[in-house]
Amino acid sequence: MHTSITDTEFSHFQRFIYEAAGITLSSAKKALVSGRLAKRLQACELSSYTDYFKLLSSGESPAEVQTAVDLLTTNETYFFRESKHFELLQQVAARPRPGGQPFRIWSAACSTGEEPYSMAMVLAENLGNAAWEVMASDISTRVLDRARAAHFPMERARLIPPAYLKRYCLRGIDTQQGTLLVDRGLRSRVSFMQVNLNTDLPRLASFDMIFLRNVMIYFNGDTKRQVIARIVSVLKPGGHLCIGHSESLNDISTALVQLAPSIYRKPS
Question: Annotated catalytic residue: which of 81, 104, 138, 265?
């Protein structure tokens, strides 16, 4: 079977994922695209990437389009990544809120779920049974299914504080050795939904804090500006936005004030 991808075919998929998700793939990602989509050619009984692109473009298989988007957007992550953001969450959550309003946080590109469950551990520890909510979203339905399952390899848990690991995670035994399952009570406090940040957001209540981490590296300048404007629109005045440590909002938005590298606040 022909599975090497030509430059022309690669350019088709660059355009496809940009139009579907606003993601800009550099030419360095050619091998990744080829590798991730090769199995789909086989599954669809197609002999070339051109034929596969034609299938995606035909409108005949929305499910296959979603599968391709899933394959081209998935990233590995781990619990408590970038600890300063979780320290900030702890501080912000501890502040009194007017009228006993629930503390609401959004993990806006949650991938397989480690980030929102890390948030939930911090909030359970600091707010207990008080009103709080974690919403998590991703463009990929495949990673959302994995996130809902809440079952992870143990190596992704190396940064979970030991007390949290004991309280909020069940260690796998026998055939599940080397894995963990997030506690059912904690799972019930996290809701998941599919959201494409590159299109209008669904109707959402506003948030005290939003994590949008390691997403903008895939977007061009115009897309970044549009995505941040949407995010800011659902961030409460005085609320905080955390982005990836390699990202910046310079020339992207004037609606937020930078407090520290990767940490921004919406003026009250």
Answer: 138
